[in-house]
Automatic annotation (TrEMBL), chain A:
The lineage of its organism: Eukaryota, Viridiplantae, Streptophyta, Embryophyta, Tracheophyta. Its main location: membrane. It comes from Fraxinus pennsylvanica. It comes from the Eukaryota. It is found in: Endomembrane system. One of its GO terms (biological process) is intracellular protein transport. This is AP complex subunit sigma. Keywords: Membrane, Protein transport, Transport. Residues 3-142 form the AP complex mu/sigma subunit domain. One of its GO terms (cellular component) is cytoplasm. Coiled coil: none annotated. Gene3D superfamilies: 3.30.450.60. Pfam families: Clat_adaptor_s. Belongs to the adaptor complexes small subunit family.
From TrEMBL, chain B:
Residues 767-788 have a biased composition (Basic and acidic residues). One of its GO terms (cellular component) is AP-4 adaptor complex. It comes from the Eukaryota. Subunit of novel type of clathrin- or non-clathrin-associated protein coat involved in targeting proteins from the trans-Golgi network (TGN) to the endosomal-lysosomal system. It holds the Pfam family Adaptin_N. InterPro entries: Adaptor_Complx_Large_Subunit, AP4_complex_esu, ARM-like, ARM-type_fold, Clathrin/coatomer_adapt-like_N. Belongs to the adaptor complexes large subunit family. Residues 747-765, 805-832 have a biased composition (Polar residues). It is found in: Endomembrane system. One of its GO terms (biological process) is intracellular protein transport. The keyword Protein transport applies. This is AP-4 complex subunit epsilon. Residues 731-861, 903-929 are annotated as: Disordered.
Length: 143, 960
């Protein structure tokens, strides 16, 4: 399993989206998020976009006020994950049009649906934006 | 400005409201978004929980409202509060007809529940129904849920339908069905073992999305069992080729790269398939070369693919051309300003040095920059690299650095890891016992509680056994220095328990051995330790046993024992201790002190902790006792495995016998089983007080030192011995001076001196080169400290190293013309050397001008390694083809690989002419050095002909 969790956290450290691909209890999640966010927020722009934490490797990327954090295990290609984050953002951008933190907050389920299309069992399964978005668009039309 | 934008967006949102979102929901989100503190956020969420509880319990909530409540529940959980009161509503919503509600329900359920939750059972039915739906979006939603919620027990309930869906007409469904099957495989491989072939089938799916998804399960399968999938290597290569040729739909492109994520997955699979498999690897060379050439090195994603290519190239059967471009890419990464690329570069370097260790040297300064970078991630990665390239010549620098770093960080997880790495490296490569002990002291001092206790026992054993040779003075010096260092450290506060145990044991065994310290001094220190760590029973036990030893040695030596008042009070305190172990030790101590010298000597022989103890497994010395008991009517002993049968068959008259249960009876015979060695009984009888204390507890216990010290049951020490044998062997590497070199190598030492002298002369010349190179890199000046570090990390002969790295880079940058030029300078300098070395037999011109290349790669190799290298070389001379380059400069460890590469080169891949040229051009640039002469010497001696492999043309002439 490559990807263990995906988090979106804002500058203040508030969670905006959390998706775990392995089961953690509420307390474990809260502790993990706190530790990771503290670690990542403390880093400068020039430093690596990768941080080791416990047995995870965190790949993170910042877009305006929002941090995207992906926890992976050791055998993952960090730079590819970094670009995967960007692909996710581009996909959301295409759907919402110039996506921002509030879009994700108001349409949390949509953001989750996109992730459901892109990542299954901790693996990247779909990288074509058209394929990712078409079920969501169909659903919008139907309702 | 940003504020304005946000406000505008909010307005747009609230006016939109058309997504079915109520004002209430928008307000909630807004208030959450506006919070400035965690406390404020918690307040909002708690209020929200109350609201939701009330709303959800009211019977007439409209459905569209329910969806919104569910999203609010998701928020509650996401922000760290328990929302279990609403789980059931999420489950209910999965039953809904509307797709959007259903999918939201499934989403909530997958976020809330783990696969073993009680509510899952309520969903399985719904999932089954939805898997049969006509609407493929419903099927997809259900398959998503299958991936998250189905556990081992429920797999059979959905498995047939999932398998059926593998052939669904919609590619999205097929893709998700593949992933569902993948999930089942992850959860319970046995449940789908008969369906594995489906993955192979889906690999050929018409839809690239399904094919890409299938790579995930195949990757897992191949990781576990490579051999069953070797046949797929061709298919994967073909797929990769098609992707590289942009045959996939445009929508898979990412930043002008064709389907990079699929490429990466394929490369991962290929590196598994090609690992150690020449035949499969050969199928991959072309496509790997193509991809590496085509990759856009300016984009992140291009570099990600390049990095994956390097990983693949360094995993599969080596191909010189690919290795070369991998090395080029690595140097690009390392020279980049981006920390991310540097990070990848360091990681890739760590992979590649396993195959071609010599490339590390040209990057030494970059590596050291990364090591000293304030960025922790980069630093750690660099430590990983150093760990991989540690050898006996640089272990001291590397381990010292690691320890310094370990002290500087707080991260418990990483401290543990780095501590165990330090220990591992120290045990493997330690140049001297002295150093080993000092290093271990440092590790123990700062991370003693994080390392395995075995490490402590290794250390004790090492101090006890010393070199394992006859060199007694060295051993006792070692011990004295250990004692001294421990006496220095012992007063420090907060020493880890494990370390204190080691200290106590060493002080007990050797504290008074060299006569430098008096018994009262040592015992005083030991009492201090016991007092300062009054809560740690293990440390106290070690301290008491150490006291016992010191006193015994005193008594044996015929000196009068004066128990210090604090010792006396310590013993008295322990006599009444709650711990039976401590009590026992205290009583033993008391008893031993009162005995006469002869008895004590038998109980506690001086420096006997390493002696083997013969164990009489048959307990023959108890034969008479058993016989006597039997005659008195005792039950005969029945072995443990025979007992159950007996009691099963008949109701074995156990009632009247005290050993009615297995456990009790077992114990009755266990006591004498404590393997008292034959020679001891006499002692025991002479010191009757000792006998009543049963030994078995020791045998089972962890306190090894006590065991070995008491000399009564030897199991402990024999256990220790087993553990350490490997270490001892590695340690056995003879020191340079202490061995007697063979005649031929002593010869070489002579010439060795000559060349080193020469090298130091020529090094002044080289400095100039260095500077010019550095200035070209726009790095004002590399501090001498850094250079020193580089030299110590990358090999002893630093000067020639740097020369290589310099000229190596130059060649790779400029064309062969420049190489020629450097060749000339080299040639002159090497002819100098030839002059110096004129004593040796072969004609100098043949030796040096022809091929000043050879093994400059591992300048730090010790003479014995060189000799080994010679052996290899002679064996391989026949293999060396005319284009052979890599073999001679493959250093020690890699000789196996080198063999393989040489044969591959000669038999299979004939590199295009220009490649050979660059190789050759590179060759001369490498400086001559000691090893080269050594090898030639030996060659001349053993082959009888003047050099072969290194001088292709000559070789041809001679044989051709």
């Amino acid at each position: 399993m490559g990807i263990r969790f995906i988090l979106m956290v804002n500058k203040q450290g508030q969670t905006r989206l959390a998706q775990y691909y392995e089961y953690l209890t509420l307390e474990e999640r809260r502790a993990l998020e706190g530790e990771i966010v503290r670690k990542c927020l403390a880093r400068t722009e020039q430093q690596c976009s990768f941080v080791e934490h416990r047995n995870y490797k965190i790949v993170y990327r910042r877009y305006a006020s929002l941090f995207f954090l992906v926890g992976v295990d050791n055998e993952e290609n960090e730079l590819a994950i970094l670009e995967f984050i960007h692909l996710l953002v581009e996909t959301m951008d295409r759907h919402f049009g110039n996506v921002c933190e509030l879009d994700i907050m108001f349409h949390l389920e949509k953001a989750h649906f996109m992730l459901e299309e892109m990542v299954m069992n901790g693996c990247i399964v779909e990288t074509s934006k058209a394929n990712i978005l078409s079920p969501i668009q169909l659903m919008d039309k139907a309702s | 400005m940003e504020q304005l934008k946000t406000i505008g967006r909010e307005l747009a949102m609230s006016s939109q409201g058309g997504f079915g979102q109520s004002k209430e929901f928008l307000d909630l989100i807004k208030s959450i978004g506006e919070t400035r503190s965690k406390a404020e956020e918690d307040r909002i969420v708690l209020r929200e929980i109350d609201t939701l509880k009330a709303r959800l319990s009211s019977p007439n909530t409209p459905k569209f409202k329910l969806k919104e409540y569910l999203m609010r529940l998701i928020y509650v959980e996401m922000l760290g509060h328990d929302a279990s009161f609403g789980y059931i509503h999420a489950v209910k919503m999965t039953h809904d007809e509307s797709l959007s509600l259903k999918r939201t329900g499934y989403l909530a359920v997958t976020l809330f529940l783990n696969e073993d939750h009680d509510l899952i059972i309520l969903i399985v039915n719904t999932i089954q129904k939805d898997l049969r739906s006509d609407n493929y979006l419903v099927v997809c939603a259900a398959l998503n849920a299958v991936c998250r919620l189905i556990n081992e027990e429920t797999i059979p309930a959905v498995l047939p339908q999932v398998v059926e869906l593998l052939g669904h007409q919609k590619e999205a469904v097929r893709k998700k069905a593949v992933m569902a099957l993948h999930r089942f495989y992850q959860r319970a491989p046995g449940s789908v073992s008969h369906l594995i072939s489906n993955f192979r089938k889906r690999l050929c799916d018409n839809d690239p999305g399904v094919m890409a998804a299938t790579l995930c399960p195949l990757f897992d399968l191949i990781t576990i069992d490579v051999n069953s999938y070797k046949d797929l290597a061709v298919s994967f290569v073909n797929i990769l080729k098609q992707i590289a040729e942009r045959r996939l739909p445009k929508s898979y492109d990412y930043h002008q790269m064709p389907a990079p994520f699929i490429q990466i997955k394929l490369l991962k699979i290929l590196s598994l398939l090609g690992n150690g498999d020449k035949k499969s690897s050969e199928q991959m060379y072309t496509i790997l070369g193509d991809i590496m050439r085509k990759c856009d090195a300016d984009s992140n994603i291009g570099n990600a693919v390049l990095y994956e290519c390097i990983c693949c190239v360094s995993s599969i059967h080596p191909n010189p051309k690919l290795l070369e471009s991998a090395a080029d890419t690595i140097s690009k990464f390392l020279k980049s300003d981006s920390h991310n690329l540097k990070y990848l570069g360091i990681d890739a370097l760590g992979r590649l040095i396993r195959i071609s260790p010599e490339i590390a040297e040209q990057h030494q300064l970059a590596v050291i920059d990364c090591l000293e970078d304030p960025d922790d991630t980069l630093k750690r990665k660099t430590f990983d690299l150093l760990y991989k390239m540690t050898k006996s010549s640089n272990v001291e620098v590397i381990v010292d650095r690691m320890i310094d770093y370990m002290i500087s960080i707080n991260d418990h997880h990483y401290r543990t890891e780095i501590a165990s790495r330090c220990v591992e490296l120290a045990e493997q490569f330690a140049p001297s016992n002295q150093w080993f002990i000092q290093t271990m002291n440092k590790v123990f001092e700062h991370a003693g509680d994080l390392v395995n206790t075995k490490v402590a026992h290794n250390l004790m054993r090492l101090i006890a056994e010393g070199f394992g040779e006859d060199d007694d003075t060295a051993d006792s010096q070692l011990r004295s220095s250990a004692v001294e260092s421990y006496l220095r450290i012992i007063g420090e506060p907060k020493l880890p328990s494990t370390f204190l145990q080691v200290i106590c044991w060493v002080l007990g065994e050797y504290g008074t051995a060299d006569g430098k310290y008096s018994a009262s001094y040592i015992t005083g220190k030991l009492c201090d330790v016991a007092e300062a760590h009054s809560t740690d029973d293990t440390v106290k036990a070690y301290a008491v046993t150490a006291l016992l030893k010191i006193y015994s040695f005193e008594i044996t030596a015929g000196r009068k024992v004066d128990t210090l008042p604090e010792c006396q009070s310590l013993i008295e305190e322990l006599l009444a201790s709650n711990s039976t172990d401590l009590q026992q030790r205290a009583y033993e101590l008391q008893a031993v002190i009162c005995l006469d010298a002869h008895a004590v000597e038998n109980i506690m022989p001086m420096d006997a902790n390493c002696e083997d103890i013969e164990i009489d497994n048959n307990l023959s010395f108890l034969g008479a006792y058993v016989q006597e008991s039997l005659e008195k009517g005792a039950q005969p002993y029945i072995p443990e495995d025979g007992r159950s049968e007996l009691s099963n068959i008949s109701n074995f008259r156990s009632q009247d016998h005290e050993s009615s249960t297995h456990a009790l009876r077992f114990e009755a015979y266990e006591l004498p089983k404590s393997s008292v060695p034959p020679k001891v009984p006499s002692v025991l009888s002479s010191s009757a007080e000792l006998v009543p204390i049963p030994q078995p507890s020791y045998v089972a216990e962890v306190h090894q030192p006590a065991t070995s010290a008491l000399k009564v049951s030897g199991s402990g020490s024999s256990e220790l011995k087993l553990r350490l044998d490997g270490v001892q062997k590695k340690w056995g590497r003879p020191a340079f001076s202490s061995t007697t070199p063979s005649p031929s190598s002593s010869d070489n030492f002579g010439s060795n001196n000559g060349t080193t002298q020469h090298e130091s002369i020529s090094s002044t010349k080289l400095k100039v080169h260095d500077v010019s190179y550095d200035s070209r890199k726009q790095q004002p000046e590399v501090s001498s400290e850094k250079k020193k570090l580089a030299a110590s990390l990358f090999g002893g002969a630093s000067k020639s190293d740097r020369k290589q790295s310099y000229s190596g880079q130059k060649v790779s940058k400029t064309n062969s013309h420049a190489a020629d030029k450097s060749n000339i300078t080299e040639a002159t300098s090497s002819s100098d050397i030839a002059a110096v070395k004129a004593t040796s037999q072969p004609p100098p011109d043949l030796l040096d001008l022809g091929e000043p290349t050879v093994t400059s790669s591992a300048p730090s190799v010790d003479p014995f390694k060189q000799l080994e290298g010679l052996l290899d070389l002679t064996q391989d001379t026949t293999n060396l083809s005319s284009s052979e380059v890599s073999m001679p400069n493959a250093p020690d460890l890699m000789s196996i690989y080198a063999d393989m590469s040489s044969s591959s080169q000669s038999t299979t891949v004939a590199p295009p002419p220009n490649v050979t040229k660059t190789h050759l051009a590179k060759q001369p640039s490498k400086g001559p050095n000691v090893q080269e002469f050594l090898e030639k010497d030996a060659l001349v001696r053993q082959v009888g002909v003047t050099p072969s492999g290194q001088n292709p043309n000559l070789f041809k002439d001679l044989l051709g």
